C-alpha cells in the first residue's frame, strides 16, 4: 500500500509577533514547526505502516527551501521518502494554487492508495487544501477523521462533526484530513535522524519544471483570492474600571448586571 | 476528467444574486444559516441583487417554510432521498448544479464542519476562490466586490480577502458572528427541483450517524455566559464559575488554557479554536484576554471582567473592569445576587 502525506511548515503561532503599524507578521526569530494537524497525519500513516506489511509512506511539502527541515523531521519519524516541491513560481499561492501544485505532484507520483492531510494549518486555518486536492484528483474524501482503520480494502473512518460523528466507508484511493483527536504523534527516532539527513535518504526536490502544472493557475498573481489588506485588530477601552473591597466591586458588578435588564 | 480553471470569465456582470447554503439537521435549521441570510440580505440590498437560499434535503417542507420568512427572494429546494443526510459528493454535485444554472455572484456557507468540507470542493469544481471562516463581509459598490475579512495566525492578524476576477465569490462564515435578522411579512417564492442522483455517485458512504451522548453545550444560544480562565486556579475554580452561571441562569465558558488543563470539556471553549459567542452578558473571570480568546467573544453586548491584574488585555475590552481576586469577588457577588433575588430586585432563571 502506498500512502502520501501532505504537510506544511508553519511559524509557531504561539510565538508569533506582529508589526502593529504595518499589520504584518514579524517572522524573524519565530521558530518553524510541522503544522500540528499534519503531525497527526504523519502519525496516522506511520500507524498503518506499523501494523501492515508493505506499506510505503511518502511525505510531500510545497514550500520555501527552509521547509526541507520539516521533511527531514518526518523522515526521522519513519517516513520512507520525501518530496520537496519548491519554486518561486509557487510563491503566494492561495489554497487553489497550492492544491493545484499538490495535485500535479500526486499525478507525477501516480501510484497511491491513501492521501492524508492535516485538517488545517495554524497560520491560515482554512482547511481548504485537502478537499480542493481531492477534487482535483477526483478522489472521494473523508475530512475531520478522528478514528481510522483499513478493512477489506476499504477505509473506515469516524468523521467528527459538531454533534457527534459519522461512520464513513470509502474505497481507495481516497483522501483523508485528520484532526488532533486521532492520535498522539511520535517523536523522531534517534536511529532514523542520522539516516534522514544522509545521502541514503530518499529525498527529492522538484521544481515547476518537474511536474505538469499550469502556470496560469498558481502563484500570487493568478490565484483567485487576493489579500486586499491585513491589519491588527484594534480594541479601545470603552468601559469603566472599579477596584476596592470585594463587597464594593461585587455591588458594582451586580448593578451593571441589573441595568442590562436581562429578564 | 479535466480540472476547472480560474481566470476564465470574460463578463463578470453575467453573475448576479447573493446566495446562501442552508444547513439543517433533524428538522432544524442551523443558526448560522439564518445569520448568513441576514448578512446576505444586506449585501443584496447594496448590490441591488436578488437573494437566494439553496436548500438540499428530502421531504423538508417545514425547513422551507421556516426559511421563507427571512426576506429571501427565491428558495431553490433540491429534493432527493439521497440528500436526506449530508454527503460530500452529493452536496458538491448539487451546489455546482445550482451555481452553473443560476450564476450567482456570491455563495455563502456556514463555516461548520460540513460547510468547510464541501465548499472547497465546490470552489475547486467550479473554478473560483473561497475564503475560509470569515467574520465580516462588506460590499464594495464601486468594484462590486465582497470584502471578506477573517482572522489569521490564531487571531493575531486580520486579513481582508477579495476574489476580483472569478465568480461566484465564495466564503464560509463563522457561526455566531453575524446578527440574526428579523422575520418579514413577505414570503419567498420556492423553486423545487428533483435532481438526478444515484447511489454510485456517493463513494464515501455514511454507514451511520452517531450523536454525542453528552449534549454539546450551546454557548452560541446563551444570553449570559460566565467564563473562567487560568486565573480560576485549578479544577475547583470551575465549581465557582458554575455557581455564578447557575445564579444568573447562564452557561459556562472557558479559555483554551482551562480546557487544555483538562478542567472542563472542550465544548465549553470560547475563542479562535473554540466557539464564537455574542451573548448579552459575558463575565470573564480570571481570563487575561489573549487574542485567540478575544476573537471569540469581543462582540458580546456587555463584558464584565474580573482580574487580579488591572493591566490585563481583557480589562481594556471590558465595559466593566473589576480589579480584584475572583475567589473573593465571586462569593461576595453570589451573596448579593441571592439577597437581590430575595428582595425581588431581580430574578434570574
Can you put this structure into words, describing what you see?
The complex is a heterodimer of chains A (263) and B (349). Chain A has 263 residues and is α/β, with parallel strands linked by helices. Chain A has 7 helices and 15 strands. Chain A has a single domain, classed as Rossmann fold (3-Layer(aba) Sandwich). In chain A, 29% of the residues lie in helices and 31% in strands. In chain A, the strands form 3 sheets. A 9-stranded mixed β-sheet of chain A has the order 11-10-9-12-8-1-6-7-13, sandwiched between helices. Chain A is globular, with a radius of gyration of 23 Å. Chain B starts with 17 loop residues before the first strand and ends in a 7-residue tail after the last helix. Chain B folds into 2 domains: 190 residues, HUPs (Rossmann fold, 3-Layer(aba) Sandwich); 124 residues, 3-Layer(aba) Sandwich (Rossmann fold). Chain B is α/β, with parallel strands linked by helices and 349 residues long. Chain B has a 7-stranded parallel β-sheet, sandwiched between helices. In chain B, helix 3 crosses helix 4. Chains A and B meet through helix 3, helix 4, strand 9, strand 11 and strand 14 of A and helix 3, helix 4, strand 7, strand 9 and strand 10 of B.
